[in-house]
Amino acid sequence: MTVDTHHYRFALVGCGGRGRQLGRYVAGMAEAQLVAVADLAPERLDLARSELGDVACYPDHLSMLAEVRPDVMILSTTGPHHAAITRDATRMGVRGIYCEKPMACSLADADQMIADCTAAGTVLVIGHQRRWMKPILQVREALRAGVIGRLTHGYVYWPSGRVGSNGTHFFDAIAFMIDSQPVEVVGRLVPGIDTARIEDHPVYRERLTSDPGAMGFITYSNGVRLALDCLSNVMLPNAYTFCGTKGWLTLCEAGWTIDHRARDEEARSIPRAWLPLERRELPALTPDTPGEAEREGYRELIRCIETGARPTSSGEDGRAALETIVAFHLSSAAGMRPVTLPLPPEARDVVLTIH
Questions:
Q1: Which parts of the chain register pLDDT below 50?
Q2: Are 238 and 142 in a shared domain?
Q3: Which residues pair with 188 in a beta bridge?
C-alpha cells in the first residue's frame, strides 16, 4: 500500500557538526522540510544559519518547540540530554523523533524515553543508520538465505576503540544482521592508547580515556558466539566475519567489499568440518551513498507515523545496544566475569560517558 504522506515539518535540536549534517540530509526530500533549529551555543546557530538555508533559529529547544510545533524532531545533542528533551517533545505534541546515537548514557534514561514516547504515541527512531544501508541489508539477506549454512560464530573488529560511541553502531548492526540479541557478555576494557604499540594521538587519547577500547565475547540467543576486538592498536578498518556450517563470509566496510568461502553441503559432524571451502561469488554490494541511509530513516519514521508500524530501528533496539555496552563495563569491572542479559534492575543506574 502506498502511503499518502504530506509535507512534514522537521526541527533540529543540537547544531554541532553531526547535527548540521543530519539537517542537511532533510534537503531534497519531497516529504519533509527543515523549518527550525535550536542550540544553546550562539556560534553553532550561526553555522546552522549559513549551512542550512532558510530556517528559524532558537537559543533553546523549549522555545522552538513551543513556537514552531514541528511534526518531527531530529535530536542531535549529547547523550545525557536526550531523555529530558524527548520528554519535552512528547509533551508538546511532536509526532516523531529521530534520535542520533547514543540513544542515552544510562538504561534508566533509555527506559524513560521509550515510556514517554509510548504514552504520547510518538514514534521513536534511533539513528543506527546501518539498518538502512544497502550493503548491510544485502549481507543480512545472504545470511538469512543460508549462504554459509547455520551461523555458529564470528569475529568483529574496528579501529579507534570507544566501545560506547562506536560499539552502539556495531552491536546494533550485528544484532540486525544475525537477527538475534545478546544473552551473555564477557569483556575487558582498556582505556587510553597503547603507546608502546602505536603512536600517540591527543584527541583519541582523551576520547579513549572516558570511552575505552574493549575485547571479549558475546553470545546471542540463537547460539551464535562472536569475538570482539576494538582495542586502541587495531589498525584495520571495520570488518565482520560470520562463520557457519557451510562456510564463512567477511564484510569490510572500507569500500564495502565481501569475501565468501563455502562448500555445497553443511557439516553437521566434526569429521566433516575438515572439508575444504571454495571461493564463492555473491552479487556485488551496492555502495553506500552518504546521507541516503539517514534519509531512509526519516522516510520510514514518516511511514510509521502514518501507519502505526514499528520502526526498523526502534527505541527497544537502541536500548538493546546500550545494554550490551553496559554489560561490557560490568564484566570488565568484575574481572571478565560472564554477565547474563537481560541485566538486573540495578544496572539501569549505571551512567556511562558516550559521545
A1: 1-4
A2: yes
A3: 215
